[in-house]
Structures are given as C-alpha cells and as structure tokens.
C-alpha cells in the first residue's frame, strides 16, 4: 500500500497534540519506517502505519521524535524552536518556517 501525501513539509513548526510539545520537521517518510516492536508499543495511540511519519527536533530539549501525521497540527506561533541540533538540520526562519540544510535520508 502506498502512503498518503504529506500534509506538512520540511522546516515547518508543528505541535504534537498527544504529548503536548512543539518541534520543527527535519525529515518525512511516506509511511512508518521504524522497528515493528516500537510501533506495537504505541498501542494506546494506535498510529496507522500507512500515513506520513515525521522526524522532529523537539523544542527546549536535546531530543528528536518520530511522529505520525495524525498526531500533528500546524503551530502558528512563529516562536523559534530551541534544540542543539538546529544548526545541523535547519537554517534561518523565514515566514514562520525554517530553511532546511540537511535531512536524515
């Protein structure tokens, strides 16, 4: 099965509704590309495999997250994201989104 078209794009700031954090998108997969046991461990949220999954730099942490599209909404705040890996993945913020310098793939 082919995944659906991505709703969000690289450099966009989003809010994770489930775990209540914001981050910037640095990569997107057309569908889940992680380990099966990790996906099975998320039974409480029941994310669908065949949807876009995003790699995010999580704001105010050193963490990166892998999140299904169903958990995300656009963050309109235009407040910069603070993560030590920002300089590696993204450039300057322009019009509420970051320019992308490097992806994971």
TrEMBL record:
<dbReference type="InterPro" id="IPR011722">
    <property type="entry name" value="Hemimethylated_DNA-bd_dom"/>
</dbReference>
<dbReference type="GO" id="GO:0003677">
    <property type="term" value="F:DNA binding"/>
</dbReference>
<keyword id="KW-0346">Stress response</keyword>
<dbReference type="InterPro" id="IPR036623">
    <property type="entry name" value="Hemimethylated_DNA-bd_sf"/>
</dbReference>
<feature type="domain" description="Hemimethylated DNA-binding">
    <location>
        <begin position="5"/>
        <end position="101"/>
    </location>
</feature>
<protein>
    <recommendedName>
        <fullName>Heat shock protein HspQ</fullName>
    </recommendedName>
</protein>
<dbReference type="Pfam" id="PF08755">
    <property type="entry name" value="YccV-like"/>
</dbReference>
